Automatic annotation (TrEMBL):
It holds the Pfam family NrfD. It is a multi-pass membrane protein. InterPro entries: Electron_transfer_protein, NrfD-like. Keywords: Cell membrane, Membrane, Transmembrane, Transmembrane helix. PANTHER family: PROTEIN NRFD. One of its GO terms (cellular component) is plasma membrane. It is found in: Cell membrane. It comes from Candidatus Electrothrix aestuarii. Belongs to the NrfD family. The chain crosses the membrane at residues 23-45, 57-78, 98-121, 153-173, 179-201, 213-233, 253-276, 288-316. This is NrfD/PsrC family molybdoenzyme membrane anchor subunit. The keyword Iron-sulfur does not apply.
Length: 326
């Protein structure tokens, strides 16, 4: 293909985006689904858990996880050039292809997510199920809830890591080509999963547990993000140029500059709000102000996680070898 360009500004010089917002949404929802799988299972398995499994977050979150993953996969399907050929992923298995691994991992993850969601359903919810087969499956898997929870922890982590591996194997895109990127997406996926747990949970003890856990997850996320930028800066010229859009406030790279500034404000602010909440005094019920702090910080985490996916998907396609976009 031959492309002739004339002009003197960034709008006239287009970047041919291979992946757009649909892929960014998939990566965000995929990581979030992995986080929800892991966090809902941790909530069940953690020592000292109080309250019955019938509490809202114990069964609504497992139900939510496969729904969000399905929405994410729908956006990924929309991005396919030949949508009717999607089934070809399952006609073969290529050990060296990350997309092939991802297709088959999702095929394994779906049954685990659905079985765990059915096993976690409280009796009053199962009583409202009209389909006899679904109700029988839910009753059959209920005794195996602990085993399913452990499997969901493992495969939730794998799902979040995979969303980063999908990008990191693109050698031609220096910004994506980093072994740290899967760790960043893992940290972000777990953090956003904990944030949703905080928002959905009604029990004070559950909210406080995941608020404390999310503080460490955000710290880890910020550390990994800093290490990724440091790794690119100390690498070759192409990798160093790949991160420059995030540190250049000119008009053509301002969205990326704004994204790193926003992340640098939202995530530390979320930590501060969480510290204010976990160090405060609590009665049997969380106060209105306490709920505001918890939910606001959780929303900041979700926004930050989405910004990370969108910024990296778009900025990664500005990077390359043999030329300097800056």
């Amino acid at each position: 293909m031959e492309l002739s360009i004339t002009g003197t500004n960034a709008i006239t010089y287009p970047v041919m985006h291979v992946w757009d917002w649909r892929v960014a949404i998939y990566l965000f929802l995929g990581g979030l689904s992995g986080g929800l799988m892991t966090m809902s299972a941790i909530n069940y398995l953690r020592p000292g858990r109080k309250g019955p499994m019938q509490s809202v977050c114990c069964w609504q979150i497992p139900v939510m996880a496969p729904i969000l993953l399905s929405i994410g996969l729908f956006f990924l399907w929309l991005d396919l050039e030949r949508k009717l050929h999607g089934y070809l992923f399952y006609m073969t298995f290529k050990p060296l292809s990350p997309m092939s691994w991802g297709a088959w991992i999702v095929l394994v993850i779906y049954p685990l997510m659905i079985l765990y969601a059915l096993a976690a359903l409280p009796d009053e919810v199962k009583a409202r199920i009209k389909n006899g087969f679904v109700k029988n499956v839910a009753d059959a898997v209920a005794p195996h809830l602990s085993k399913l929870a452990k499997l969901n922890v493992v495969f939730g982590v794998l799902l979040s890591i995979y969303t980063g591996i999908l990008l990191s194997t693109f050698v031609a895109r220096p910004l994506w080509n980093s072994a740290i990127l899967p760790l960043l997406f893992l940290a972000s996926g777990m953090s956003t999963g904990a944030a949703v747990m905080i928002i959905i949970a009604k029990n004070k003890e559950v909210k406080l547990f995941f608020t404390k856990l999310d503080i460490w997850l955000i710290f880890f996320e910020l550390l990994v993000l800093a290490l990724m930028f440091y790794g690119h800066y100390t690498a070759d010229a192409a990798h160093r140029a790949a991160i420059m859009p995030f540190f250049n406030s000119s008009h053509d790279t301002f969205p990326y500059f704004l994204s790193i500034i926003t992340i640098g404000i939202l995530l530390p602010l979320a930590i501060v709000l969480k510290f204010l909440e976990v160090t405060g005094k609590h009665t049997e019920e969380v106060s209105g102000f306490g709920l505001f702090l918890m939910n606001t910080s959780a929303i900041f985490v979700l926004i930050g996680g989405a910004i990370i996916r969108f910024a990296l998907v778009y900025a990664g396609q500005l990077s390359g070898y043999g030329y300097n976009m800056m």
